[in-house]
Design goal:
This protein is about 35% helix and about 10% strand. By secondary structure, it is an alpha/beta fold. The chain has a single domain (about 10-365), classed as Alpha-Beta Barrel (TIM Barrel). An eight-stranded parallel sheet has the order 1-2-3-4-5-6-7-8. Strand 3 (about 140-145), helix 4 (about 150-160) and strand 4 form a beta-alpha-beta unit.
């Protein structure tokens, strides 16, 4: 029965607040769990362990590696693979109205065997719909695709884009500059199905120096990828070509936005003749069409939040996220200062995401 594991009530805080968590990193216990959703020859590659999955070049120095210490399931599977534990630690701890899954791997990071990447993406989408989405009506998910084969990615969007609990297409920041027209079939399909395009950094993200010796360097430099992605989208006319498409930048910070706005607009005024198809100031496109997840939230005071919002001239750009189950998990009461005006906290914790994903969330209300 759909949503068989859903609970009738959550935290008592739900009587006064609602939250949409826009970045939950669920995963499967083992690659073998995807085998039933694959056809040959790809199924055999997984079953015979001929493929070891994707890898990250750094060791993690947190007490439990990438993840918070209490998120490891008793079953021994990886953190984020136990639905009941996630429900206990997030859905039942905070007044979560909706949670949006983003996964823990990107088929787009595969640098070869693109057909296999597309097959793995489809298998994962099927697995998460059956094993997570169907278990609780609060859960929505992202479609994983292999953007290195845009036509296959568009087919996957056509296949599942109308599912009522699929709200966005997730693309990795790292391997590609998505403003390039090569990737536009993905945007065309997403716009047709009224899905958000979400970007999340991947293991292949590199800083301007290309290689970093330390994990902390990589982690600090993650926003560079998001900044470059936004300039690619604007300069290649994506916002004009796909006027109904909305975007989200997930887990890449946001305090760098004033710098990007000011520098981008200044250069546009001087160099617009190079990109005449771009009809508005870059900051206007970004302010009106892109939202940014709050995790990882710097240690902002309420006063700093208000200053940032004043510089950006908008309180509509932020969507709350926990980044469960990772080590830098953001609890809502700690990351969004209680000293902020109540209406602003509600806008960050709930309203902005509700508006972004309204096509699907309101259809099920």
């Amino acid at each position: 029965m759909p949503f068989a594991d859903a609970q009738e009530s959550v935290s008592p805080l739900a009587q006064t607040n609602q939250i949409i968590d826009t970045d939950v990193h669920e995963t499967f216990p083992s690659w073998l769990d995807l085998a039933p959703y694959l056809k040959e020859p790809w199924r055999g590659l997984v079953e015979h362990k001929a493929w070891s999955g994707l890898s990250f070049p750094f060791a993690y120095w947190a007490s439990d590696g990438l993840n918070r210490a209490d998120s490891q399931p008793d079953s021994g599977g990886p953190a984020g693979s136990d639905f009941k534990l996630f429900r206990e630690q997030v859905l039942e701890t905070y007044p979560i109205k909706h949670a949006i899954l983003t996964g823990q791997f990107f088929p787009g990071d595969m640098e070869a065997q693109f057909e296999f990447a597309s097959a793995i993406a489809s298998a994962y989408n099927n697995w998460v719909l059956e094993n997570w989405v169907s278990r609780d009506e609060r859960i929505f998910t992202s479609l994983h695709v292999a953007p290195q084969d845009p036509i296959a990615a568009a087919r996957e969007i056509e296949r599942l884009g109308d599912h009522p609990h699929v709200v966005q297409v997730l693309l990795p920041i790292g391997p590609a500059a998505y403003g390039d027209p090569f990737y536009h079939p993905i945007f065309e399909a997403a716009q047709r199905h009224k899905l958000v395009i979400a970007f999340h950094h991947s293991d292949r993200l590199r800083s301007a120096l290309l290689k970093n010796r330390y994990y902390i360097e990589w982690h600090v430099n993650v926003p560079q990828g998001a900044m470059s992605m936004l300039t690619s989208l604007v300069c290649n006319g994506v916002f004009d070509k796909f006027p109904e498409l909305q975007f989200a930048i997930v887990e890449s910070g946001f305090s760098w936005l004033p710098h990007l706005f000011w520098r981008f607009d200044q250069n546009y005024r001087s160099l617009q003749q190079e990109i005449p198809w771009v009809k508005q100031l870059p900051s206007k496109y970004i302010r009106e069409r892109v939202k940014f997840s709050t995790q990882p939230t710097e240690d902002f005071s309420a006063a700093n939040w208000l200053r940032l919002i004043e510089m950006l001239e908008s309180d509509r750009m932020f969507i709350f996220s926990t980044d469960y189950p990772h080590w830098d998990f953001d609890a809502p009461e700690e990351s969004i200062p209680r000293e902020l005006p109540a209406d602003l906290r509600r806008r960050i914790l709930y309203e902005n995401a509700r508006e972004l994903y309204s096509q699907k969330l309101e259809a099920l209300a």
